[in-house]
Amino acid sequence: MQLIVDGLRFSYQSSEVLKGVSFELNDHEILGVIGPNGSGKTTLLKCINMVLKPKQGLVLFDGNDVKRMERLDVAKIFGYVPQNAQLTFDTPTVFECVLMGRRPYVSWRCSPEDFEKTWSALAALGIERFAMRRLSELSSGEQQKVLIARALAQEAKVLLLDEPTSNLDIKHQLEVMNIMKDLVIFKGLSAIVAIHDLNLASIYCDKLLLLREGEVVAVGKPKDVLTVERIKDVYGVDVDIEIKDDRVCITVLPNSLNCSPSNLISVNRKKA
Length: 272
Ligand SMILES: Nc1ncnc2c1ncn2[C@@H]1O[C@H](COP(=O)(O)OP(=O)(O)O)[C@@H](O)[C@H]1O
Ligand SMILES: [Mg+2]
Prior knowledge:
The protein has helices at about 40-50, 70-75, 95-100, 110-125, 140-155, 170-185, 200-205, 220-225, 230-235, 260-270; strands spanning about 1-10, 15-25, 30-35, 55-60, 65, 80, 160, 190-195, 205-210, 215-220, 240-245, 245-250. The protein is of the alpha/beta class. It has one domain: P-loop containing nucleotide triphosphate hydrolases (Rossmann fold, 3-Layer(aba) Sandwich). The strands form three sheets. Strands 6-7-8-3-9-10 form a six-stranded mixed beta sheet, sandwiched between helices. Adenosine-5'-diphosphate binds near residues 12 and 39.
């Protein structure tokens, strides 16, 4: 498997949000997309699977232009896991939600194979026991697993995960990231994950793509992308960086934004 994204540009109305994004993703790789809020991470994921049509640029999957593919064929390649489950009044059961992942393969009715793949996706995520529960009755972490199971049932080759750890406590963050890593190693998938936590990103991702206002600031190994100067430049925050066993450990310095507790107290005193 090889994914090439070359010079992607996208605008909402007149404002350009992606300004020529390029990178490559290979078999069994996890690419972390990082960058401040509003830098274009979600838009990039949606342009890769053509939920949004890029204005310019190419997405090539094994040499084939994804823009020219049928919608259902695109769904056999990319499994999109949104940031949060879309909970509506008639939220489906967990089983129904995961079965929806079989949509690209279903003609008139679901086959025994579709049911079998749904159960095995639920089993892979360890959530068979929730099968008949409604999505709205699950915790954020459990919902996130259901959405990943749906992408698995879809037999996608590349997972596109949009901030899969937001709203989760540390244990569940690690659990979701471990699931992603296992799927990449044992099921032969690749993944592109938009993520805010730079430490988690550097532990789990093979490569990072750093965006700022729709432009690629850097792409490469976490220890090459995450430098003190670049984090200051892009996020405006002072950090300490230690490299431990080839991993980047980032500590945010509390006086970074002039909003340490003592500063806030003196600001409030001046106001009073
Ligand atoms: N539907 C939309 N219509 C207009 N502008 C949008 C829309 N969605 C996102 N944007 C804008 O596009 C930019 C990138 O957004 P997004 O891709 O969601 O960034 P991120 O995921 O990095 O936070 C932001 O400035 C955001 O306000
Ligand atoms: Mg986003």
